Amino acid sequence: MSVQDRIQTLVSEHPIVLFMKGTPQFPMCGFSSRAAEVLKACNAQFHSVNVLADPEVRAQLPRYSNWPTFPQLFINGELIGGCDITVELFEQGQLKAMVEEIQRGAE
């Protein structure tokens, strides 16, 4: 399976995926930490991928998403954006609404 296929599978199988440096418990950069924190603040059940532990995903994800930096948040298979966009959506209340909609659909 190609790296692009692996990325596609991850974003297809998990309603919320955060590609980040480190893990939600041990983030390895401030931007990844902030993105994970706002997801937790929304009580989001999300899958995280540590791009530092998977150099192929780290190299290929920017090509897949057409987004150069990390973290990258995908919701329902669609790129939402990086840290700034994620935090902005959180501050506007939109991120919580998106998370709640997904979790209602999963019930």
TrEMBL record:
Stretches assigned to the Glutaredoxin domain: 16-80
Binding site for [2Fe-2S] cluster: 29
Binding residues for glutathione: 21, 58, 70, 83-84
One Pfam short name: Glutaredoxin
Family matches, as InterPro entries: Glutaredoxin, GRX_PICOT-like, Monothiol_GRX, Monothiol_GRX-rel, Thioredoxin-like_sf
TM helices/strands, residue ranges: none
Annotated GO MF terms: 2 iron, 2 sulfur cluster binding; disulfide oxidoreductase activity; metal ion binding
Entry keyword set: 2Fe-2S, Iron, Iron-sulfur, Metal-binding, Redox-active center
UniProt cross-references to PANTHER family, sorted A to Z: GLUTAREDOXIN FAMILY MEMBER, MONOTHIOL GLUTAREDOXIN-S14, CHLOROPLASTIC
NCBIfam families: Grx4 family monothiol glutaredoxin (TIGR00365)
Membership in a protein family: Belongs to the glutaredoxin family. Monothiol subfamily.
UniProt-recorded name of the protein: Glutaredoxin
